[in-house]
Inverse folding.
């Protein structure tokens, strides 16, 4: 058994570690946008912060929709049906282009929300420009994520790492030129940051296409030998898997974003503490998320091979290693929370509030790691609709209502704290919501994997 676990862990890690570095590099692009505009002016920083709040929600939703391609292609890899993959990828690129264009339109329409936030007119104008300019990268991002899923399904994740690192380097350099107006270029501030990120998305797509065209690894499944028209039946079948994942991602990201907006009423200390705690937690979350992406690939491949017993083993092995990391990260977050906060700010009031939030973040490390890896295992089974409903219920049936009661202490509620718990109240709600999601998803994965094994035994005596 130990040898079996070690073998599976090695296969998971082989896929996961380049994905992890690529994810960190992608997050680094957003960090660079915020940090570099922050050194120009408070107005440009505010514009990027507001614009990124819309951009990130749509970006993550598109990412979720594109994950369906991973499950479909990896299943065919496991089944040895490599001849089917080029056609699947040609159709997935049509789907990605359509999803990207719709996302671009939604982003541009969503800028009207700034009119209801009572913003400074200059900040509103800059935030609107940021969103409209950065939206040019959305079709490229969707197609890049389609190819991302394709190469991940073939266990080839190093291109993801290399291209993401190059994208980050490009983004930082062009940010420097466009934001500050170097070498005779106009000083564009937050709009220049949006231009750099949008262009980087198209260059990352071009780099991925170049890599797939020249690497011999893709020769057997190379999808771009000829053109073909969209097949709406096949595109709909991928969307049936992908749309629930996109909604799941939307529910989670929008809940965290809503907390950021709701704590704004409590002043700069609450806003800053919430943002720091969320930023650091998001960074730590990249590890279980990367393991989850690898897990979707491994479960899909194993099911494609027809081995439902090993698929269950792979699923729970992935969840187990993610939980081990969560225990380590929670311990480190608890012990070093003041050191972490000191790296972000020297303000003692913000440090104290953030340290308390990091304690709550440490608590939800286990449930957060469990829910993402279990969700990814279920995607390997091509089951996404029930997990979607579980996440919606967990975040909007538990996390947000409990957070509103504890955080705001509204007088009209029959029970509420004596005074608002502010950001801590909302984070307690998130802890409970993530815990509910992890437990319910775990029960569902157990029942699903067991029923698949029972069905296999009945049909293959």
């Amino acid at each position: 058994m130990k040898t079996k676990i070690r073998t599976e862990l090695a296969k998971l890690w082989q896929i996961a570690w380049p994905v992890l570095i690529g994810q960190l590099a992608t997050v680094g692009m957003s960090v660079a946008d915020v940090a570099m505009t922050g050194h120009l002016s408070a107005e440009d920083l505010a514009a990027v912060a507001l614009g990124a709040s819309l951009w990130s929600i749509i970006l993550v939703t598109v990412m979720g929709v594109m994950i369906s391609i991973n499950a479909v292609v990896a299943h065919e890899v496991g089944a040895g049906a490599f001849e089917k993959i080029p056609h699947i990828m040609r159709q997935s690129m049509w789907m990605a282009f359509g999803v990207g264009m719709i996302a671009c339109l939604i982003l541009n329409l969503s800028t009207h929300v700034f009119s209801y936030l009572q913003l400074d007119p200059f900040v509103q104008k800059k935030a609107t420009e940021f969103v409209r300019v950065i939206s040019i990268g959305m079709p490229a991002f969707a197609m890049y994520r389609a190819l991302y899923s394709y190469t991940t399904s073939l266990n080839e994740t190093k291109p993801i790492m290399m291209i993401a690192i190059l994208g980050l380097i490009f983004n930082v350099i062009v940010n420097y030129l466009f934001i500050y107006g170097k070498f005779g270029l106009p000083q564009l501030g937050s709009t220049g940051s949006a231009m750099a990120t949008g262009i980087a998305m198209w260059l990352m797509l071009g780099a991925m296409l170049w890599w797939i065209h020249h690497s011999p690894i893709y020769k057997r499944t190379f999808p771009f030998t000829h053109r073909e028209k969209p097949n709406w039946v096949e595109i709909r079948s991928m969307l049936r898997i992908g749309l629930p994942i996109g909604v799941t991602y939307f529910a989670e990201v929008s809940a965290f974003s809503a907390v950021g907006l709701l704590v704004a009423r409590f002043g700069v200390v609450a806003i800053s503490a919430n943002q720091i705690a969320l930023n650091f937690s998001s960074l730590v979350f990249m590890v279980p998320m990367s393991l989850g992406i690898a897990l979707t690939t491994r479960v899909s491949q194993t099911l494609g091979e027809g081995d439902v017993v090993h698929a269950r083993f792979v699923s729970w092995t992935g969840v187990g290693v993610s939980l081990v990391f969560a225990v380590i990260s929670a311990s480190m977050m608890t012990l070093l929370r003041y050191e972490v906060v000191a790296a972000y700010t020297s303000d003692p009031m913000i440090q104290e509030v953030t340290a308390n939030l990091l304690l709550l973040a440490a608590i939800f490390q286990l449930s957060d790691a469990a829910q993402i890896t279990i969700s990814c295992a279920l995607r390997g089974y091509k089951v996404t609709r029930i997990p979607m409903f579980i996440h919606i219920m967990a975040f909007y049936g538990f996390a947000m209502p409990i957070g509103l009661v504890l955080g705001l202490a509204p007088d009209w509620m029959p029970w509420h704290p004596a005074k608002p718990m502010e950001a801590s109240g909302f984070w307690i709600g998130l802890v409970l919501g993530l815990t509910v999601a992890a437990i319910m998803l775990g029960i569902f994965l157990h029942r699903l994997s067991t029923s698949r094994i029972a069905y296999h035994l009945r049909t293959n005596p």
Notes: The chain is about 80% helix and 0% strand. Residues 153 and 161 are 15 Å apart (CA to CA). The chain has a mean pLDDT of 87. The radius of gyration is 22 Å.
